[in-house]
Amino acid sequence: MQKLLDHLAIAELSAQAGLIALSRHLLPGHALFVDQNFAISRGTSWPGTSPLDDTEIEEYLERAVSVEEFSHQGRKIFWALTVPPTEPLSEAERVLLDGRTPHQVLISSCARVFGEDSATPKAMSINGVVGGMTNDLALQWHENAIVAVVWQRILDNPDLRDILADHEFPLYLHKRARAIVEKRASKIVI
């Protein structure tokens, strides 16, 4: 990152303009802070409204998976990775995946966490988060990126975050993400 920032300085972009340009080319889950301003990659949770105060920045950075500090044009830059690392499912784990659809797994999880009466509306909300996050076809989504970004978005949503504790919710996420990736791959014309 430091070398990339050095190249942006050579191009005579301001620190903020350079970070905004850079953020447009990063995968979801990256946030860059300079002073009280920020630039985030598409699909990344929003830190707030600029200018941010020090407390808002610190709270955002505390939730990040990793944070690195760089110097750029004499200013301190924080680069935060905000999505949890995910490992691809092993072949053994894939074999264990049952034949239920992603929606059936989600309804089952929602019923356990939110109750039978709230299962369908909560599932619709969660599916809305997934659809909203992955509707940008220009982003080359892969299964683990979808899982990580959706996990972060749901963690940021107080009405939905309890679902993250359910033991089958990761199964839903992986099944849904795989279905999205496969559907898009089938549409690619060579």
Question: How would you describe what is shown here?
Answer:
The chain is of the alpha+beta class and 190 residues long. The chain folds into two domains: 80 residues; 97 residues, no CATH class. Helices cover 52% and strands 12% of the residues. It contains eight helices and four strands, in the order H-H-E-E-H-E-E-H-H-H-H-H. Helix 5 packs across helix 6 and helix 6 packs across helix 7. The longest helix has 19 residues. It starts with a helix and ends with a helix.
In short:
The chain is α+β, with helices and mostly antiparallel strands and 190 residues long.
Features:
52% helix; 2 domains; alpha+beta; 190 residues; 4-stranded antiparallel beta sheet
Note the total helix count: 8
Output the structural class: alpha+beta
Biggest sheet: strand arrangement: 2-1-4-3
Total E-strand runs: 4
Share of residues in helices: 40-55%
For the termini, the CA-CA separation is: 34 Å
Major β-sheet profile: 4 strands, antiparallel
Rg measurement, Å: 19 Å
Shape: elongated
Low-confidence stretches: none
Q: Summarize the helix and strand pattern as letters.
A: HHEEHEEHHHHH
**How many domains in all?**
2
Beta-strand residue fraction? 5-15%
Quick check: average pLDDT? 81
